[in-house]
Amino acid sequence: MIKFLTKGLLRDRSRSLFPVLVITLTVTLVIFTIGFMKGIMNNLLLDSAVILTGHEKIITRAYNEESQLMPNDLALLDVDQLIHDLNQDYPDFFWSPRITFAGLLDVPDENGETKSQGPVIAFGIDFFSHGSRQVEIWELERSLVSGKLPENRNDALISSKLANQLNLSAGESVTFIGSTMDNAFTTYNFNVSGTFNLRKGQTDKQMMLVDLSGARLALDMDNAASAIFGFTHSLYYDDESAVTLRTDYNTKSDSLDIFSPFMLALRDGSQMGTLVDMSEAMLAIMGGVFLVVVMVVLWNMGLMNGLRRYGEVGLRLAMGESKGQVYRSMISEAVIIGLTGTVIGTGTGLALTYYVQENGLDYTKGIEALSNSSMVMPNIFYAQVTPDLFYIGFVPGVLATVLGTMLAGLAIYKREMAQLFKELET
Amino acid sequence: MIKMITFFLSFTFLLGQPDNMSVQDIIKAMDNNLNAKSRVLTSRMIVHGRRSSRTIESRNWVIGTDQAFTEYLSPPREAGTKMLKLGDKLWTYSPQTDRVIQISGHMLRQSVMGSDMSYNDMMEDRPMEELYEATLEGSIMIDGRDHWIMVLEARVKGLSYPKRRAWIDKEYLLPTKEELYAKSGKLLKTSTMEGIKRVQGRWFPSRFVFKDELKRNSKGTEWVIDDIKFDVDIPDSRFSKSKLRK
């Protein structure tokens, strides 16, 4: 029967080609739009995650109490062992230590006297470890304005805004003035290997990036770190699983020891919970509205297809086919058309979404215009392929089409057999 | 830090002063003592951190209130670090960077070697009479010793501690306890002194404890004077910037 119906559909292009095309396009649009919206929301969270929170962040309980002060005297110790354990226990994430510190950056003149000086917020990140993804997640290759990425532990990347303020350029030496892990005064020379612009407004105004090993030397933090950041391998933040993992980890941690490691999910960061909830709510509302609209379109198409075949249905009834048979065959055809369009549309939509996930859409100029904003804004928007995109298209593609056809098909039961030949005569 | 030392030293000149001595007399006598000709001292600073304690040894050369030179002797990370104070300017030299850097602006509020003292504490050493208006609140017995309670209110703007309250031993004329307040009245730091003994005709404490009250769970910083000599001839070359690198 299905073979018979399929043959009929293929031979009558007015019943197959156009509906399949419409469903394909609509499902493609649904998949891409939802994937793109999810990507944008994830990018918004990822930017904050990379700089501030990670998808998960481990600090000591005492550090958590005073985190605004960047209290490195309360930092994590024996970090190598901690990371080893995390990699074993939570392999869905990659874990990387980070030292966050602040102080003054002093630029010497040719006599070694202070030429210029300014406040700096520095991040010691893992540039050099085998398999480290820090350069990738910070998008440093793309953000590099001049010079090159750090090649040894004394190299530093300075934000172009800070470099301009201090009249610095790549190749020069700067002295960091700050406090060690023991709060002792420290000075440390870094070579400016390059300048960068994250293109995220004022976020990087006073930013310096150095390798973790350089930061450890400068701050006397051997095998210590302010925090350990964890990210999912796909860089996609799943709030529910992140919260579950955090709760699980903290249950095992000694709550009485103020120096015991303590995990925070992205939503635990300052106002990040609200952002996560808002983004999820916005996604649900926007996705829901969009889904309803396309469902109405496809429903309507199913309805119109049914009505357009008014004469054919009459003829089939006149020839002796039962109303139930006609109704079921129309629904079967709608299922075949819906499935075909949905499968093609899902494939096309996923391919498109994946392309934008990998390459992104560049809105740099627009974001630069908002450079006075202190918000961490992404400047290239990436889509995100998520598991639900593999089945979400079936809702409008099959369900709406079939429902439309079912509604139109109800007219079959209202046809009066006595009127059929009269209708066919006209 | 220098101010605190000189503040303490100043009271040694008031030895044996009568109980009815006026506040103005005390302050004036104190200022006379603040400007000791010179002193050379070796000390240990024991910084009690939240995780561990560190001992930092240093040697200081001081002339009056304007010139001071400090060389840190240990631990290895701090050894060779030097500081020079000339008037209201402060430079530091670190052998790791081989740079002479002037400490200014908000860096002056930073802790000295992780202790509970800031660079501003080291810098503020103008005569107390110029800086504070003093009043006596009364007397109190502490550990069997008679003390005045003195309140010092700032006469000039921009001081790190616009208000102080000191408990002054009437025999030693040393503030065995002091509280340092912000303009808002918030307690910022406290200091105490112990081990008072005679040194070259002065009563002098051998151990101070400073505590930054803003640091949560701070256990304070001990400052132990191992050796001190007053009125020593110190060559002017000791207080030159070139000495920092040598």
Descriptive notes:
- Chain A is of the alpha+beta class.
- Chain A has helices at residues 2-11, 13-53, 61-65, 79-89, 134-137, 140-143, 160-166, 212-219, 239-252, 272-308, 310-318, 323-359, 364-368, 394-409, 417-425, and strands spanning 56-60, 93-108, 114-125, 144-147, 155-159, 173-179, 185-196, 207-211, 227-232, 261-265, 361-362, 380-381.
- In chain A, strands 2-3-8-5-7-6 form a six-stranded mixed barrel.
- Chain A is elongated.
- In chain B, strands 6-5-4-3-2-1-13-12-11-10-9-8-7 form a 13-stranded antiparallel sheet.
- Chain B has helices spanning 2-10, 23-34, 119-123, 128-131, 242-245, and strands spanning 38-48, 53-63, 67-74, 82-86, 89-94, 99-102, 132-142, 145-154, 163-169, 175-181, 187-199, 202-212, 221-230.
- The two termini of chain B are 24 Å apart.
- Chain B has one domain (2-245): outer membrane lipoprotein receptor (LolB), chain A.
- By secondary structure, chain B is mainly beta.
- Residues 7-18 of chain B have low confidence and may be disordered.
Defining key terms:
heterodimer; A: 426 residues; alpha+beta; 2 domains; two-stranded antiparallel sheet; 15 helices; 19% strand; B: 246 residues; mainly beta; outer membrane lipoprotein receptor (LolB), chain A; 13-stranded antiparallel sheet; 5 helices
